[in-house]
Specification:
Blueprint lengths: L1 E3 L4 E5 L8 H9 L4 H11 L10 E7 L2 E10 L7 E8 L8 H13 L6 E3 L4 H6 L5 E6 L2 E5 L4
Parallel strand pairs: 5-6
Antiparallel strand pairs: 1-2, 2-3, 3-4, 4-5, 6-8, 7-8
């Protein structure tokens, strides 16, 4: 499944880390985010390949340039839940709907599994972003938000 939003953002499922993944690493590290380093480390050691039931890793491109990445995995607090994980949009592509398109793509993938979906919003921009997609605050270990179905 490929999603083309009409604004040039194309989102697709990936089963390998993309070529030029180092762009994510350099830019995320420069901003103080360790999510891309963690993604790479978990991918190479095999501990997280987005292969279990309900999981997906998605890549967004704009005119064939990698713009963002994100996915959903089994939740590590409660394995009956899913968790939005490893989201990162490169600075040059922010405020263009990239993060939203990735999130909507993986949420659509998760629908048939009918599981709670949690996340940890890392930083003030994320705290504002996730509620626009229907996530609400929750008091839970290593979790800031949960998806509110039907919102």
């Amino acid at each position: 499944m490929v999603s083309d939003s009409g604004n040039g953002v194309v989102v697709r499922r990936i089963i390998e880390l993309p070529d030029h993944f180092d762009q994510f690493l350099v830019e995320a590290d420069a901003e103080g985010f360790d999510t891309m380093s963690a993604l790479q480390n978990e991918w190479f050691d095999g501990s997280n390949r987005f292969e279990r039931s309900g999981e997906i890793l998605a890549l967004a491109t704009i005119h064939d340039e990698i713009a963002g990445i994100g996915g959903i995995t089994q939740d590590f607090v409660d394995s009956s839940w899913l968790r939005m994980r490893r989201f990162y949009v490169r600075p040059a592509y922010r405020r263009r709907g990239v993060g939203r398109q990735i999130a909507l793509y993986v949420l659509e993938h998760a629908k048939p599994f009918d599981r709670q979906i949690a996340l940890y919003a890392d930083g003030p921009e994320a705290e504002v972003f996730w509620p626009t997609l229907g996530f609400g605050p929750i008091e839970r270990e290593n979790t800031t938000h949960v998806f509110r179905r039907g919102i």
